[in-house]
Design a protein that fits this description.
Layout lengths: L12 H4 L2 H19 L37 E3 L14 H5 L5 E6 L13 E8 L8 H5 L5 E3 L14 E2 L1 H8 L14
Antiparallel strand pairs: 1-4, 2-3, 3-5
């Protein structure tokens, strides 16, 4: 087996004691300080600011229209276009969650349900918002597109017991989602 040796760069004395990087950081900091003093901060028009810094005046100005498409907010459960639950209690989201914030208790599908192809449905589905780290792994792991990260960023809790969101709350926050749902695909 052959290998390619990697040649490490030789650092000078200035590189070893981080003088160049320290000076670069100080120059950037003083540049922002000078722009703030002159009331010409970058982004002041976007945030309705006075020019001193780029802080958003929060209660009056919100992020709602400025959120990027890739923003990861609170996880929610969604229903299909016809109102059925998309979750099939596979528990992949629970197993992949690094913070162990998700708890799924599978249960049987009711006899009067229109989706008899499912083997099980969630009897309980809970997400502890104090433990959630908003990583998005639950959304990536879900094979039925049942869990999505919403654009919600204002999660203010006054009591720890309210941090655990149950199945009904998650469905209410998630709403319905359009598109192909694999568990009702006739060609599956």
């Amino acid at each position: 087996m052959s290998y390619i040796p990697i040649k490490r760069p030789k650092f000078s004395l200035l590189d070893k004691i981080y003088v160049v990087e320290l000076v670069k950081g100080l120059v950037r900091t003083f540049k922002h300080l000078a722009l703030s003093v002159l009331r010409r901060s970058r982004g002041k028009d976007d945030f309705n600011a006075q020019g001193i810094g780029v802080c958003m005046q929060f209660p009056e100005t919100r992020w709602d229209e400025r959120l990027p498409e890739y923003y990861r907010g609170a996880p929610t459960l969604v229903r299909g276009e016809d109102g059925r639950e998309r979750c099939v209690s596979c528990q992949l989201c629970e197993f992949i969650c690094p913070a162990r914030a998700i708890k799924v208790v599978p249960g049987p599908v009711s006899a009067d349900s229109a989706c008899q192809k499912q083997e099980k449905a969630p009897a309980e589905f809970e997400i502890d918002m104090l433990r959630c780290i908003y990583c998005g792994m639950c959304q990536e792991a879900c094979p039925e597109q049942a869990i999505f990260l919403s654009k919600e960023y204002l999660i203010t809790l006054t009591d720890r017991s309210k941090s655990v969101r149950d199945k009904e709350t998650l469905y209410r926050l998630g709403g319905t989602r359009k598109g192909l749902v694999n568990k009702w695909n006739q060609h599956k």
